[in-house]
Amino acid sequence: MTAVDLGERQGGAAATAAADAVRFRHVSKRFGTQAVLRDVSFAIPAGRAFCLLGRSGTGKSVMLRHIAGLVRPDEGQVLVGGRDVGALSSRDLASVRTGIGFLFQNAALFDSMTVGENVAFPLRRHTRLTEAEIVARAHQRLAAVGLEHDYGKMPGQLSGGMRKRAGLARAMALEPALLLVDEPSAGLDPMTAVEIDDLLLERKRAGTTLVIVTHNIPGARRLADEIAVLHDGRILESGTAAALDASEHPLVRRFMRSVGGG
Prior knowledge:
The chain is of the alpha/beta class. The chain has a domain at about 110-170. It contains 10 helices and 10 strands. The strands form 2 sheets. A 6-stranded mixed β-sheet has the order 6-7-8-3-9-10, with helices on both faces. The chain has a 4-stranded antiparallel β-sheet with strand order 2-1-4-5.
């Protein structure tokens, strides 16, 4: 089954939607006079990795923001775990967000906090763990991304790749079932980009659902169970890398044949 659902399936639709980690149902979004998303529908089964490709400014990051409930659609529904995030109260939306990790393009670490304090921040905000437990878990998350010796450093002391690793550790602090990733290889050299991809692969093997916006075609090939190409607010095609390699659409072919980059 492919991720894109360009025609709602008949029978069992409600049960299927509940089983999906993420589902867009005919979502449209405008900012002023600009149509960013146009009748977008797709579904991502739990535990799968879904990569969004497309030129800059086509609405890929806006789709991530819809999933996190930071933006609400003008039309249609965005379901996370079967719940319509656009219709939730602030309290219920906050509950849903505890199950979502977000790795931002620039890592978005708090510069006034140490690396360890950054990772501990969501644990302090959303759990009732003791301070000793919080510190221990933050150390564990940093060790998992190879930063076990960097707890006390400030973000400004880290390289770009290390900042990305720290951002991933913070995104996974609450062990979310769903991880949203915006341009994981942006600004990184090819070797470091592969290392970040390896960490994401570990999360996928652990059962985390991944939704990744990227321009890095080699990375998408490694990570994705499903790839979708977004253009002019619409999904042109989606499927496995092999399926898109065989596409006859000229833009899809150009993307899949490109070397890619950060």
